[in-house]
């Protein structure tokens, strides 16, 4: 392994790497007992106590002789993420051994902290590099999945429309020996995906359904579905300027689903995998679908369009209906679906809806284990009344009440009864920068989704 083979922020161990001590408040006291008086005095003069998110440089005869990284929870990757940006550029090697789980969290956090989106602009400075004898292979794959989400969401729409999203999914399929097909434009009507076509037909970029298949037919069948609205104007119910500004991120659900599919294949989980991504642009044009129209769906459910800006659930309905036709063991969907979920839970905590308590509990428990949390919300079926239509089987919206719940209830209508299903309403975005969490695209509950699948199926 060479440094060129490693992700950004890592290097191979060399004698030139400076020592790095990773300590919490309790560990600092023990460490200090073994240090010379000058070192103790140096840290005391700065009132350094190894608080979470802190660091201290240690002086030497020729400059910086080493550093301390102050952390909190040793199993939280983000507890270590400040290291790549806070320490001076160059190579840093652990000065002491860590427990395997702590070492994995350090490696992942360091990689997340070293991330820079540089397609159009170089980063302000190179991150400090963690020098290793070997990078944990699972950490490498999990980090790559998180980076995949960030890169896809950060890419502006002119370079990440439906056709470019297809190219990424096709590349992922090829890399892992999966089959791939794309149903494009009017072929969606011919193959009975009318709702996807209705939402995407106004754009000069043809709507499409992306489908990847991989794995042994004897294994449990997992279907991943991701909302791929590559830009959302709101349609004829047009968004205001501030609401439209960051709508390149409205394919964040697709980014999560693609990255999770890639991670499942990279780790060779014993699953039969299908990935479905309805990829569209919700545009304004002469052929845009209109408020008040009644559209057909693959499920046979007629839908009155109350609001063209509630388009994500419309395209997902056709994809979920197809997912159910495959008789899978499990369906997971990811979508940047509602502002209501952000109002309820904020940007860092995705809203989980599930029709199966065991599935929900498994995902929640995995979130606690890997420090990648989510929060379960209710499928409160009495609120189906908010989706009542006088002329169709249901409306796609209709009330400002319980917006995240009603969106999930809409999706549930397209899932076969008895099929375990979970829906993640995810923000996929950081509004501002924090250590390890740069402003822009973000993977949320992706690591816990993988941990849940691994726990359920790898054994």
From TrEMBL:
* Biological process, per Gene Ontology: proteolysis
Q: Which GO terms describe its cellular component?
A: cytoplasm
What InterPro entries does the annotation carry? Leucine_aapep/pepB (IPR011356), Macro_dom-like (IPR043472), Peptidase_M17_C (IPR000819), Peptidase_M17_N_1 (IPR048816)
Q: Which SUPFAM superfamilies match?
A: Zn-dependent exopeptidases (SSF53187)
CDD domains, alphabetized: Peptidase_M17
Residues of the Cytosol aminopeptidase domain: 307-314
Q: The organism sits in which domain of life?
A: Bacteria
* Gene Ontology MF annotations: manganese ion binding; metalloaminopeptidase activity
Q: Which UniProt keywords apply?
A: Aminopeptidase, Hydrolase, Manganese, Protease
Q: Please tell me whether the keyword Phosphoprotein is annotated for this protein.
A: no
**Family stated for the protein in its record:** Belongs to the peptidase M17 family.
Specify the protein name. Leucyl aminopeptidase family protein
Organism this protein belongs to: Luteimonas marina
